[in-house]
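Prokaryotic metallothionein: structure, please.
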Amino acid sequence: MTFEVHAQGAVHVFDCFSCAIHRMAPICEHCRVQIIGQGVEVDGHWYCGAHCSRAEGRVGIVDNV
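Here you go.
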């Protein structure tokens, strides 16, 4: 069985969740890790957490653990 993910005007077809996650997860713009779960978005840029966003000069992001 397959399922569709509709994102940003495109339709993606997958046969397992792990494939969908691998293909659709954003990439941290600082450390290049795939963001699965919590991440932060600042002005259209994605980071895995506050540390990476601050390393790229972004301000006002705080990790709440």
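Notes: The chain has a mean pLDDT of 91.
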